[in-house]
Amino acid sequence: MASLDSVLSCIDLNLDRSLGRLFDLLRIPSISTDPNYKGECRRAADYLAGDLAAIGFAASVRDTNGHPMVLARHEGPEGAPHVLFYGHYDVQPVDPIELWTSEPFEPVVKEAPDGSKRIVARGAADDKGQLMTFVEACRAFKAETGSLPCGVTILFEGEEESGSPSLLPFLEAHRDELKADAALVCDTNMWDRRTPAISTGLRGLVGEEIVIKAASRDLHSGYYGGAAANPLHILSKIVADLHDETGRVTIPGFYDGVGEVPDAVKAQWDNLGFSEQAFLGEVGLSVPAGEKGRSVLEQTWSRPTAEVNGMIGGYTGAGFKTVIAAEARAKISFRLVFDQDPAAIREAFRAFVTAKLPADCTVEFHAHGGSGAIQLPFDSPWIAAAREALTDEWPNEAAMIGMGGSIPIAGEFKHRLGMETLLVGFGNGDDAIHSPNEKYEMTSFHKGQRSWARILDRLGKGVAV
Amino acid sequence: MASLDSVLSCIDLNLDRSLGRLFDLLRIPSISTDPNYKGECRRAADYLAGDLAAIGFAASVRDTNGHPMVLARHEGPEGAPHVLFYGHYDVQPVDPIELWTSEPFEPVVKEAPDGSKRIVARGAADDKGQLMTFVEACRAFKAETGSLPCGVTILFEGEEESGSPSLLPFLEAHRDELKADAALVCDTNMWDRRTPAISTGLRGLVGEEIVIKAASRDLHSGYYGGAAANPLHILSKIVADLHDETGRVTIPGFYDGVGEVPDAVKAQWDNLGFSEQAFLGEVGLSVPAGEKGRSVLEQTWSRPTAEVNGMIGGYTGAGFKTVIAAEARAKISFRLVFDQDPAAIREAFRAFVTAKLPADCTVEFHAHGGSGAIQLPFDSPWIAAAREALTDEWPNEAAMIGMGGSIPIAGEFKHRLGMETLLVGFGNGDDAIHSPNEKYEMTSFHKGQRSWARILDRLGKGVAV
């Protein structure tokens, strides 16, 4: 315990410096989905590789067909397990920019009404702040002990927010370098501010963009209105038809492979003290809008969804223009659970849309990423070890929870490298990731570093697999 | 006839100069709906007032709460009728700009495959080219005879493309100046390239913009998807529900005041030689998409419509963003016929939308203009006089047709100033008004001037009202 104590103390003493390093990373606008920020993504990768090398990792930036990967390795003591830590340095776009109260890429520490501090910037929580908690834990171990308690490989991706197109080829090509005893991912939330969480389930994701076209050019709605097909009407009908009146998705075969959560697990969820009113109320809602007869935790953790994420067509500027647009577009994503097959869902959706097209209309489909859901065994020894360590750091025992979001890498680690993934994160539900004024609690940043130090220390003592 | 012949000959000899003047006007980007072009709208008004003054009109630019009006007056011979000519100097926005093959505000003359010439620019047909045919006819009369054959008041508006908010107050405030024996409007099409047309019916227009809001901010579709209301789904459902499976509009009371076209008129339309295949085929369509059981001429001339002109929400940039938007917007317009009441339609639509809102959702409505349809008597002596004059100029006799578009001023002239409006225009169906590469046939510009000279000459001889 002596060395762990000194590591924790080193983390406490260096909090300001670790914050400065995080700010340097947050200042890099590494928006992966927008081609204009390609150079910034590489700059973020270079920054991280340099920082890891300074700590003592064998670190390098690896090119892909898209944004580069950062890969770094540090051996552990003989006989200790070796873990793979994954994070992503890319961030979401910042629009609507006018709703930010400070510049998205000029990080600041703000004080909340309760006196707590928070780091505000795009990427503060998702995922730069989170991944740096692990890096800082490693730095403190090296500074205090000259080594790490177990072997660590670090993989930072730059395309997590844009469908991870380069990830699978990279995993396949570097299988030997990446293989470890287990994977660690820090891209998830705490259960609440006093209760850390280990996520045992994650929804998958299929993204599709569709473009409906009718006339060969935009038409005057006076001359043609009433006779010409309107792609916005057709697209709206398709979107409206995606759900029935009970909130279920109507695409044929959509629920193939969707299982039910065992009663024991539902009972554990019921005991978490989750308040639907508070969860919805925080964002101005009061009634669960999804599948009827399901709790909000079921709706977001164990049920699949179809959501329109963006839609555009015709004249959308100031004023009015009486036009019938030649085309209309929508970005639609599906959250998958259990054994739903991403490829089958994509095909079923495309068939669903195509069958609804009236005469003279065409549709283009563009795929934007696809990954299945994952479900970890509740009795994993890795989970047990992490729970011990987390419970030492936080006021409450760590909860085992589900997750509505998608972290495609977890499924790939399982299916391609045969590793379980330990999903431990220090985000909070109000972090506004993907939204204006994204923030990360200073407590998350500080105690997150301490948590990883405890987990690494605990894993270094061995895991009974 | 001697003086008319010399006027026509003056028009022929000065075609190049008249084209130069039109180009000067087309170079002014007077986009009324976009506040960035406010100064350009005034510049267009100043240009026209100056030109009319140079011809000999008492011309001035009159301020309004929006873009200014141009008002000009020239007395005619004792006992001759006095007409009010109306046109609009404002133009539509130019997007999608990337589809233009030349700059929208750098007019050029291009040769069509058949050797005919056309003027290409935003506003070439709608309405700068058309209004200048009348101005040039007046200029030729003044040059050749020193006077005009009848009294002429000219009113040029700068807000026709953005709902004409200042028009009614202006008509009310200047009722005495504007009152005339009849109104002339040049903002419509020929029947075909050899057949001039007089429009006896025009659809009205109601524009509405709606904003559907749910959560207080954009949400991550992983954390909230399945539980949170999605404004794009709600908007799509509203749009999808606007029409039933036969293409009829489902808003309660929408068809109140909609009459049927008399069989005799339908028979005249059937004899026009209109080809639905050609009309739709020209813009890449083949099947009438609107109300079932109606011909395309009925659908566009005598039936009301509900069309979405623009829709936007969520992430619409490059790539993908898994967001549930806080709001979704649509611009929706209604074309009205017969006695449909614009105010009643607006209220019925708003009630229809409000009734469909689920829990936690709100809607904002923004009005964008409203005007009823007009239907001229088929036996008007003004129409008879204009037909005579037009038939002298063109190969075929002038047709009496309906119109799908809306020219709100015609209804206002009738209801507020008690004047009939003669709708004579020289546009063609392929002019691409409101679209990229708008054009106006050189023949329309040239023979349009000659047509107005003949009509003014004919009206100067008296109309038996």
Task: Describe the overall structure.
The structure is a homodimer of 465-residue chains. Chain A has 465 residues and is of the alpha+beta class. The first copy, chain A, has two domains: 2-202 and 373-460, 3-Layer(aba) Sandwich (Aminopeptidase), CATH 3.40.630.10; 204-258 and 304-371, Alpha-Beta Plaits (2-Layer Sandwich). The first copy, chain A, is 34% helix and 21% strand. The first copy, chain A, has 14 helices and 19 strands. Chain A has helices at residues 2-13, 15-26, 38-55, 128-145, 167-173, 175-178, 231-241, 263-270, 276-281, 296-301, 342-355, 381-393, 408-417, 442-460; strands spanning 58-62, 69-74, 82-88, 108-111, 117-120, 151-157, 182-185, 197-199, 201-202, 204-213, 219-220, 305-314, 323-324, 327-336, 362-371, 374-375, 399-401, 421-425, 439-441. In chain A, the strands form five sheets. Chain A has an eight-stranded mixed β-sheet with strand order 1-2-6-3-7-18-8-17, sandwiched between helices. Strand 12 (305-314) of chain A pairs antiparallel with strand 12 of chain B, so a sheet runs across the interface. Chains A, B: InterPro entries: Cyt/Met_Dipeptidase, Peptidase_M20, Peptidase_M20_dimer. Chains A, B: Keywords: Dipeptidase, Hydrolase, Metal-binding, Protease. Chains A, B: Residues 201-360 form the Peptidase M20 dimerisation domain. Chains A, B: Pfam families: M20_dimer, Peptidase_M20.
Q: Tell how many strands the DSSP assignment of chain A holds.
A: 19
The dominant shape of chain A is: globular
Question: Distance N terminus to C terminus of chain A?
Answer: 24 Å
Number of helices of chain A: 14
Gyration radius of chain A (Cα, Å) is: 23 Å
The assembly state of the depicted protein chains is homodimer
Q: How much helical structure, as a percent, in the residues of chain A? A: 25-40%
